[in-house]
Amino acid sequence: MRADESKHGWFGDDRQYEFIVVLDDATSEIYYAQLVEAESTRTVMAALREVIEKKGVFCSLYSDRAGHFFVTPKRGERVDLSRPTQVGRALHELGVRMIPAYSPQARGRMERSYGTWQGRLPQELRLRGIKDVNKANEFLRNEYVDEFNRKFTEPAALKGTAFVRLHRRDLDWIFSVQQERTVNRDNTVVIGHRVLQLEQTRWKDTLARQTVVIHEHLDGRVSIRYGPHVIAEYANDGLPLPAERRKHTAKLRGRQAA
Q1: Domain spanning 2-152: which CATH class is it, in words?
Q2: Of 212, 98, 237, 230, whose CA–CA distance to 172 is shortest?
Q3: 119, 188, 220, 245: which has the fewest Cβ within 10 Å?
Q4: Residue 254, SS3?
Protein backbone atom coordinates (compact mmCIF):
# COMPACT_ATOMS: atom_id res chain seq x y z
CA MET A 1 0.00 0.00 0.00
CA ARG A 2 1.21 3.50 -0.77
CA ALA A 3 0.12 6.92 0.47
CA ASP A 4 0.72 9.94 -1.77
CA GLU A 5 -0.15 13.60 -1.34
CA SER A 6 0.10 16.59 -3.65
CA LYS A 7 -0.60 20.31 -3.15
CA HIS A 8 -2.03 22.04 -6.19
CA GLY A 9 -4.53 24.58 -7.48
CA TRP A 10 -7.10 21.96 -8.43
CA PHE A 11 -9.82 24.51 -9.30
CA GLY A 12 -7.68 26.64 -11.58
CA ASP A 13 -7.60 29.59 -9.16
CA ASP A 14 -5.48 30.76 -6.23
CA ARG A 15 -6.85 28.16 -3.81
CA GLN A 16 -4.40 25.40 -2.91
CA TYR A 17 -5.57 22.06 -1.51
CA GLU A 18 -3.73 18.91 -0.52
CA PHE A 19 -4.81 15.82 -2.42
CA ILE A 20 -4.44 12.62 -0.37
CA VAL A 21 -4.41 9.30 -2.21
CA VAL A 22 -4.06 5.77 -0.82
CA LEU A 23 -3.45 3.17 -3.51
CA ASP A 24 -2.29 -0.37 -4.13
CA ASP A 25 1.40 -0.19 -5.00
CA ALA A 26 1.18 -3.36 -7.10
CA THR A 27 -1.90 -2.59 -9.23
CA SER A 28 -2.26 1.23 -8.88
CA GLU A 29 -5.86 0.74 -7.74
CA ILE A 30 -7.06 3.77 -5.79
CA TYR A 31 -8.72 3.04 -2.44
CA TYR A 32 -9.02 6.61 -1.18
CA ALA A 33 -8.75 10.04 -2.81
CA GLN A 34 -9.86 13.30 -1.20
CA LEU A 35 -8.97 17.00 -1.15
CA VAL A 36 -8.21 18.56 2.25
CA GLU A 37 -7.25 22.02 3.45
CA ALA A 38 -3.92 20.70 4.71
CA GLU A 39 -2.36 17.29 5.07
CA SER A 40 -2.01 16.46 8.76
CA THR A 41 -1.99 13.63 11.24
CA ARG A 42 -5.80 13.69 11.39
CA THR A 43 -6.42 13.80 7.63
CA VAL A 44 -3.96 10.95 7.05
CA MET A 45 -5.53 8.92 9.87
CA ALA A 46 -8.99 9.47 8.38
CA ALA A 47 -7.78 8.19 5.00
CA LEU A 48 -6.11 5.08 6.42
CA ARG A 49 -9.02 4.27 8.70
CA GLU A 50 -11.48 4.42 5.80
CA VAL A 51 -9.35 2.05 3.71
CA ILE A 52 -9.01 -0.40 6.61
CA GLU A 53 -12.74 -0.32 7.35
CA LYS A 54 -13.60 -1.01 3.70
CA LYS A 55 -10.85 -3.40 2.65
CA GLY A 56 -9.18 -4.79 5.77
CA VAL A 57 -5.70 -4.49 7.27
CA PHE A 58 -2.79 -4.38 4.83
CA CYS A 59 0.79 -5.53 5.33
CA SER A 60 2.79 -2.34 4.89
CA LEU A 61 2.49 1.33 4.01
CA TYR A 62 5.02 3.02 1.72
CA SER A 63 5.12 6.81 1.98
CA ASP A 64 7.30 9.89 1.87
CA ARG A 65 9.02 11.06 5.06
CA ALA A 66 6.58 13.81 6.02
CA GLY A 67 6.40 14.58 9.72
CA HIS A 68 3.05 12.88 10.30
CA PHE A 69 4.53 9.61 8.98
CA PHE A 70 8.05 9.66 10.45
CA VAL A 71 10.34 11.51 12.83
CA THR A 72 13.54 12.66 11.08
CA PRO A 73 16.05 14.03 13.64
CA LYS A 74 17.95 16.06 11.04
CA ARG A 75 16.80 17.16 7.62
CA GLY A 76 18.03 14.81 4.91
CA GLU A 77 19.01 12.03 7.34
CA ARG A 78 17.30 8.71 7.87
CA VAL A 79 14.09 8.52 9.89
CA ASP A 80 14.12 7.37 13.51
CA LEU A 81 11.91 4.28 13.59
CA SER A 82 12.22 4.08 17.39
CA ARG A 83 10.15 7.27 17.71
CA PRO A 84 6.78 6.56 16.08
CA THR A 85 4.42 9.36 15.16
CA GLN A 86 0.73 9.16 15.98
CA VAL A 87 0.15 7.58 12.55
CA GLY A 88 3.04 5.18 13.16
CA ARG A 89 1.68 4.19 16.57
CA ALA A 90 -1.79 3.51 15.13
CA LEU A 91 -0.48 1.34 12.29
CA HIS A 92 1.87 -0.52 14.66
CA GLU A 93 -1.14 -1.44 16.81
CA LEU A 94 -2.67 -3.04 13.71
CA GLY A 95 0.54 -4.82 12.71
CA VAL A 96 1.21 -2.64 9.64
CA ARG A 97 4.84 -1.98 8.74
CA MET A 98 5.76 1.56 7.65
CA ILE A 99 8.36 1.99 4.90
CA PRO A 100 9.91 5.42 4.18
CA ALA A 101 10.79 6.36 0.59
CA TYR A 102 14.51 7.06 0.13
CA SER A 103 15.46 6.01 -3.39
CA PRO A 104 15.31 8.42 -6.37
CA GLN A 105 13.23 5.79 -8.19
CA ALA A 106 10.62 5.78 -5.42
CA ARG A 107 10.44 9.56 -5.30
CA GLY A 108 10.25 9.67 -9.10
CA ARG A 109 7.31 7.26 -9.10
CA MET A 110 5.47 9.45 -6.61
CA GLU A 111 6.18 12.56 -8.70
CA ARG A 112 4.77 10.85 -11.79
CA SER A 113 1.65 9.95 -9.82
CA TYR A 114 1.27 13.58 -8.74
CA GLY A 115 1.68 14.67 -12.36
CA THR A 116 -1.06 12.32 -13.53
CA TRP A 117 -3.56 13.65 -11.02
CA GLN A 118 -2.55 17.29 -11.49
CA GLY A 119 -3.02 16.92 -15.24
CA ARG A 120 -6.36 15.08 -15.17
CA LEU A 121 -8.36 16.06 -12.11
CA PRO A 122 -8.51 19.87 -12.75
CA GLN A 123 -9.85 19.18 -16.25
CA GLU A 124 -12.52 16.82 -14.93
CA LEU A 125 -13.61 19.38 -12.31
CA ARG A 126 -13.68 22.18 -14.89
CA LEU A 127 -15.77 20.17 -17.36
CA ARG A 128 -18.36 19.54 -14.64
CA GLY A 129 -18.31 23.10 -13.33
CA ILE A 130 -17.20 21.97 -9.86
CA LYS A 131 -15.63 24.81 -7.85
CA ASP A 132 -16.44 23.68 -4.31
CA VAL A 133 -14.14 21.33 -2.40
CA ASN A 134 -17.02 19.38 -0.83
CA LYS A 135 -18.63 18.78 -4.22
CA ALA A 136 -15.23 17.82 -5.61
CA ASN A 137 -14.82 15.22 -2.88
CA GLU A 138 -18.32 13.85 -3.57
CA PHE A 139 -17.38 13.56 -7.25
CA LEU A 140 -14.16 11.74 -6.36
CA ARG A 141 -15.87 9.38 -3.93
CA ASN A 142 -18.98 8.62 -5.99
CA GLU A 143 -17.69 8.71 -9.57
CA TYR A 144 -14.14 9.51 -10.51
CA VAL A 145 -12.15 7.04 -8.40
CA ASP A 146 -14.10 4.15 -9.96
CA GLU A 147 -13.60 5.63 -13.43
CA PHE A 148 -9.88 6.14 -12.79
CA ASN A 149 -9.51 2.57 -11.55
CA ARG A 150 -11.23 1.16 -14.64
CA LYS A 151 -8.77 3.00 -16.87
CA PHE A 152 -5.50 2.66 -15.00
CA THR A 153 -5.59 -0.34 -12.64
CA GLU A 154 -3.14 -3.03 -13.71
CA PRO A 155 -3.54 -6.77 -13.04
CA ALA A 156 -1.57 -8.06 -10.07
CA ALA A 157 1.44 -10.25 -10.78
CA LEU A 158 0.21 -12.80 -8.22
CA LYS A 159 -3.28 -13.95 -7.29
CA GLY A 160 -4.73 -13.40 -3.85
CA THR A 161 -4.99 -10.37 -1.60
CA ALA A 162 -2.67 -8.71 0.88
CA PHE A 163 -5.63 -7.54 2.99
CA VAL A 164 -6.61 -9.33 6.19
CA ARG A 165 -10.18 -9.08 7.43
CA LEU A 166 -10.51 -6.69 10.35
CA HIS A 167 -11.79 -8.30 13.55
CA ARG A 168 -11.07 -5.43 15.93
CA ARG A 169 -13.79 -3.03 17.03
CA ASP A 170 -11.63 -0.27 18.46
CA LEU A 171 -10.58 1.76 15.40
CA ASP A 172 -12.14 4.84 17.00
CA TRP A 173 -9.53 4.55 19.76
CA ILE A 174 -6.62 3.45 17.57
CA PHE A 175 -7.08 6.29 15.08
CA SER A 176 -7.11 9.04 17.68
CA VAL A 177 -4.37 11.46 18.67
CA GLN A 178 -3.17 10.18 22.04
CA GLN A 179 -1.29 12.07 24.73
CA GLU A 180 -0.46 11.27 28.33
CA ARG A 181 -1.18 13.91 30.97
CA THR A 182 -0.75 14.13 34.72
CA VAL A 183 -3.94 15.19 36.49
CA ASN A 184 -3.60 18.48 38.38
CA ARG A 185 -4.31 18.86 42.08
CA ASP A 186 -7.74 20.34 41.31
CA ASN A 187 -8.63 17.22 39.27
CA THR A 188 -8.22 18.93 35.89
CA VAL A 189 -6.12 18.19 32.82
CA VAL A 190 -4.87 20.64 30.23
CA ILE A 191 -5.03 20.12 26.44
CA GLY A 192 -3.51 23.02 24.57
CA HIS A 193 -5.40 26.09 25.82
CA ARG A 194 -8.27 24.08 27.27
CA VAL A 195 -8.66 23.05 30.91
CA LEU A 196 -10.93 20.03 31.33
CA GLN A 197 -12.52 19.29 34.69
CA LEU A 198 -12.74 15.61 35.61
CA GLU A 199 -15.76 14.40 37.54
CA GLN A 200 -15.44 12.34 40.69
CA THR A 201 -15.51 8.62 39.91
CA ARG A 202 -17.36 5.94 41.85
CA TRP A 203 -14.12 4.27 42.85
CA LYS A 204 -11.78 7.22 43.49
CA ASP A 205 -12.46 10.69 44.90
CA THR A 206 -9.73 12.36 42.87
CA LEU A 207 -7.19 11.40 40.21
CA ALA A 208 -4.77 14.16 41.17
CA ARG A 209 -1.18 13.31 40.17
CA GLN A 210 -2.32 10.20 38.30
CA THR A 211 -1.43 9.65 34.63
CA VAL A 212 -4.30 9.56 32.16
CA VAL A 213 -4.41 9.20 28.37
CA ILE A 214 -6.25 11.81 26.34
CA HIS A 215 -7.75 10.63 23.04
CA GLU A 216 -8.60 13.33 20.50
CA HIS A 217 -10.94 11.55 18.08
CA LEU A 218 -11.20 12.32 14.38
CA ASP A 219 -14.75 13.70 14.76
CA GLY A 220 -13.62 16.29 17.32
CA ARG A 221 -14.63 14.45 20.49
CA VAL A 222 -12.16 14.10 23.34
CA SER A 223 -12.09 11.04 25.62
CA ILE A 224 -9.98 10.55 28.73
CA ARG A 225 -8.92 7.13 29.93
CA TYR A 226 -7.43 6.03 33.21
CA GLY A 227 -6.24 2.50 32.63
CA PRO A 228 -9.19 0.64 31.07
CA HIS A 229 -11.72 3.19 32.37
CA VAL A 230 -13.21 5.96 30.24
CA ILE A 231 -13.52 8.63 32.92
CA ALA A 232 -14.66 11.58 30.78
CA GLU A 233 -15.79 12.44 27.28
CA TYR A 234 -16.30 15.85 25.71
CA ALA A 235 -18.16 16.89 22.55
CA ASN A 236 -16.37 18.76 19.79
CA ASP A 237 -17.58 22.03 21.35
CA GLY A 238 -15.68 21.17 24.54
CA LEU A 239 -18.80 20.49 26.65
CA PRO A 240 -18.78 17.28 28.70
CA LEU A 241 -21.03 14.45 27.57
CA PRO A 242 -23.23 12.95 30.30
CA ALA A 243 -22.70 9.30 31.20
CA GLU A 244 -25.84 8.24 29.30
CA ARG A 245 -24.62 9.94 26.11
CA ARG A 246 -21.18 8.35 26.50
CA LYS A 247 -22.77 4.89 26.65
CA HIS A 248 -24.82 5.69 23.54
CA THR A 249 -21.80 6.86 21.50
CA ALA A 250 -19.83 3.82 22.66
CA LYS A 251 -22.59 1.53 21.33
CA LEU A 252 -22.65 3.40 18.02
CA ARG A 253 -18.89 3.10 17.62
CA GLY A 254 -19.14 -0.62 18.32
CA ARG A 255 -21.84 -1.08 15.64
CA GLN A 256 -19.85 0.89 13.08
CA ALA A 257 -16.78 -1.25 13.67
CA ALA A 258 -18.68 -4.55 13.64
Answers
A1: alpha beta
A2: 230
A3: 119
A4: helix
